[in-house]
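Review form for a predicted model. The reviewer records the input and the model, then writes brief findings.
Reviewer: anonymous (R2)
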Amino acid sequence: MNDQKVKGMIGLAVRARQAAAGSDACRILIRSGECGVLLIDSGTADNTRKKAEEMCERTGTPRRILPEGLIEAATGKSNMILGIRKGSFAEQILKESMNEE
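Model under review:
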């Protein structure tokens, strides 16, 4: 996985308002069917991570667990989950992080 490219794509998605940050916002995005990929910081609390992964499994939403601090470096917010809306940002992030899964 190319961390710099993923970090850049996350930053662009946030600035383009194509991302939802936090558990509640991600849950809404996933339930609406608009989530292209759910990004989970590896430093996220176990319970939060488990709930997010279960929701992704139920809905078929792709997810990626990123190295701790990568989302923080891109957004300025630590230990969180981030939902990226369907579209080119989500596709690029999935493509760049494909080798990890």
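Findings: The radius of gyration is 12 Å.
Further findings: The longest helix spans residues 46-59.
Recommendation: see findings above.
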